[in-house]
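All the exercises in this workshop are built on plain-text protein records. Sequence and backbone structure share a record, each on its own labelled line. The question running through the whole workshop is how a given chain folds. The record below serves as our worked example for the rest of this section.
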Amino acid sequence: MNREEFLKELQQMLQGEIPNEEMMGHLEYYNSYIIEEVKKGRIESEVIQTLGNPRLIAKSILDATKASDDDTYEYENTEYDTDEKENTKGFQANYNEQNGWDIRYGKIKLNSWYFILFVILIILLIFFVVFNLFLFLLPVIIPIVVIMMIAALILERRR
């Protein structure tokens, strides 16, 4: 695993879980650390192997963030959320060379696998409801259609 892959995986695990500024701070820290160690003569893959799995690092960061949720942090976070709410209303599309497109509606990430799965499930649910409604009404619709056809034939013969 190289530095870019390491940072990309770490970002994917942190994205949406902590504020964007905080995530970028962690990514910059690990990027700087790897670069500094390589400048000291270490091999990049060794440095990354020493750091460990980026998923475990992300889990540690998330656990530390949740553990440090004291009243002071909540107060600061409340101020941040107020600014964030003003900036995250409506549809947003951003492009990042490292991660590609980030499409959001408010704080909901629209191009994530779980949102796509949610949309597919909603479509299947709608199809299921419409199909079952049709099956439920079919015994009523068929006699009505037959009666209307018979009535049309009788009225046609009278003319």
About this structure: The chain is about 75% helix and 10% strand. The longest strand covers residues 91-96.
